[in-house]
Design the sequence.
């Protein structure tokens, strides 16, 4: 009993705050960013967002899809991060909207490690994982989905090393830009790494850029102008849940046409809105979803008739299954739903990329 107590005390001392060195995450490798921004952990630079709708400006300051890559041989990883505000969302866990999500690249694939739990307050300090072996490992730390980050530090043992990966497991030269609604941003994943762009990022090794704007992806031309400036190998437009059928009729053609004319060699994947499960019972919701998909289909067929190439289409019935078990509230996805939509979207992206090379 005495020996066990001594060992436990020794372990606690070895992991005390005094034995930890912190590094600014900004000095490590960042993925999931469209472009450089004035505030490092936001998604769109404030200057570039100035003509965008007010709601998009605010959501662009959130860190959805941004992740930090690093290597360390530390037996413990801690994190300190500051949030601009406390958040409450009825359909998301605190760890998804404001916490951190850690993965390790092991045996050729990304594997979940643990989370940085969020507690009340804006200043967070947490042990993410401890008692690991001391081999060098590559990690990826996802930032919050529905909050911002003003500061982030990663802590390791003082006698350990931490640096940018020598051979990053995410290829930032291969970029897939996803513009969309709350589903793209990550509602209602259990944690940040379960948003479907993040799932595809780990599965493919490509850098997926999450430009999901909850309730606010309404195909304004200002967003098309911005997207056309973001380097990409493929654009995925999963934005049909947010605009009304009338807005789709009015905006989708000029939006897609502009993006194609500015980037004619880059494939564009159009994704219908997921079928809202509550639309099976609420007839108005069901009718709206049906009309949304009808209108984007009309735009797609019009563009194809005009000879627009590199345009791909994914129907709603292929996205989340038909067992009605993929949402948390009839609208937003569970982890099961995100896994299914990732599995549906990837073959279309893969086809688009393959035909682009021909």
Sequence:
């Amino acid at each position: 009993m005495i020996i066990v107590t001594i060992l436990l005390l020794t372990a606690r001392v070895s992991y005390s705050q005094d034995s930890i060195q912190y590094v600014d995450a900004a000095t490590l490798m960042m993925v999931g960013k469209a472009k450089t921004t004035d505030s490092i952990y936001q998604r769109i630079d404030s200057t570039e967002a100035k003509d965008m709708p007010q709601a998009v400006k605010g959501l662009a300051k959130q860190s959805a899809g941004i992740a930090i890559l690093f290597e360390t041989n530390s037996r413990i990883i801690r994190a300190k991060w500051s949030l601009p505000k406390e958040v409450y969302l009825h359909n998301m866990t605190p760890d998804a909207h404001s916490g951190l999500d850690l993965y390790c690249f092991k045996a050729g694939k990304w594997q979940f490690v643990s989370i940085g739990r969020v507690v009340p307050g804006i200043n967070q300090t947490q042990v993410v994982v401890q008692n690991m072996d001391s081999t060098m490992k590559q990690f990826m730390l996802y930032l919050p989905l529905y909050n911002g980050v003003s500061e982030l530090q990663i802590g390791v043992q003082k006698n350990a090393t931490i640096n940018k990966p020598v051979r990053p497991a995410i290829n930032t030269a291969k970029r897939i830009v996803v513009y969309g609604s709350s589903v793209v941003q990550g509602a209602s994943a259990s944690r940040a790494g379960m948003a479907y762009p993040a799932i595809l990022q780990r599965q493919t090794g490509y850098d997926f850029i999450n430009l999901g704007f909850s309730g606010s992806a309404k195909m304004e031309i200002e967003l098309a102008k911005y997207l056309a400036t973001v380097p990409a190998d493929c654009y995925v437009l999963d934005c049909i849940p947010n605009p009304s059928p009338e807005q789709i009729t009015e905006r989708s053609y000029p939006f897609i046409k502009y993006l194609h004319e500015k980037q004619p060699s880059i494939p564009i994947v159009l994704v219908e809105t997921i079928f809202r499960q509550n639309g099976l019972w609420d007839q108005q919701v069901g009718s709206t979803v049906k009309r949304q998909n009808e209108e984007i289909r009309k735009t797609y067929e019009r563009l194809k008739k005009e000879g627009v190439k590199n345009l791909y289409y994914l129907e709603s019935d292929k996205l989340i299954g038909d067992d009605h078990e993929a949402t948390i509230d009839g609208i937003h996805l569970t982890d099961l739903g995100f896994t299914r939509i990732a599995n549906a979207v990837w073959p279309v992206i893969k086809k688009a990329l393959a035909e682009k090379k021909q």
